[in-house]
Amino acid sequence: MSAFDVAVAVCLLTGAALALTAGVGLMRFGTTLDRMHAGTKPQILGVLLVLLAMWLHRPSWAYAGPLLLVGAAQVVTVSVAAYMVARADYRGRSAGDDGSSGE
Questions:
Q1: Domains in the chain: boundaries
Q2: What does the pLDDT look like over 59-69, one tens digit per residue?
């Protein structure tokens, strides 16, 4: 077993564990903003680690281009989706929902 195989296994297992924790967080947290945090932070790192494991399994420039494109698309779309969810949640609340007296 080579060092690349060990690195692939570590990246793949860590990425899968992070994706699992993101799913558990989505189920356990109660508020929209908590769920949004749980769904974006570990999920994106998990996806990037899986992509890294895929590249380490076949380290060539032919694989690097598409994997980098997928990784960049994930980073951008997760950020935009999190922003839109937070904005929709903020706009959907009434003035008294934030705990302030409104004065």
A1: 65-92
A2: 889 999 999 99
